Amino acid sequence: MSECLFCKIARKEIPAALVYEDDDLVAFKDIFPQAPVHVLIIPKAHCEGLADLTPETAAAAARIPQVASRIAAEQGIQAGGWRLLSNCGADAGQTVFHLHFHLLGGKPLGGKLCQ
Ligand code: 5GP
Ligand code: ZN
């Protein structure tokens, strides 16, 4: 999966504004932010999305809510509230096929998940 954009970011072959990293996960600012805080949290190991979890990526992904909460606190949006979501497949609008969760906050995000 050497051509995968987010694999390249995880390997530091493409620059990104990293906000968190551990052995299995990395988080970085979205290049086209949809909110004042818009961070992408990914497992370093490649999988396409939530429909393609392997035991390794599932174990890493299970820690993402906890990491998101930590980043939310560091980014100053814990009190205001935040949203964590992952788009899976075409109807969800997934555009990068390396599992990622969007952490969004810093403004009222609206109540609707779809239109
Ligand atoms: P998706 O649409 O797959 O749920 O989300 C992909 C996200 O990746 C989008 O929000 C998009 O702005 C972001 N993105 C695409 N290319 C890059 C990039 O090269 N660097 C960063 N930091 N974010 C990217
Ligand atoms: Zn990848």
Automatic annotation (TrEMBL):
InterPro entries: Histidine_triad_CS, Histidine_triad_HIT, HIT-like, HIT-like_sf. Residues 5-115 form the HIT domain. A motif (Histidine triad motif) lies at residues 98-102. One of its GO terms (molecular function) is catalytic activity. The active site is at 100 (tele-amp-histidine intermediate). Pfam families: HIT. It comes from the Bacteria. This is Histidine triad nucleotide-binding protein. It comes from Candidatus Geothrix skivensis.
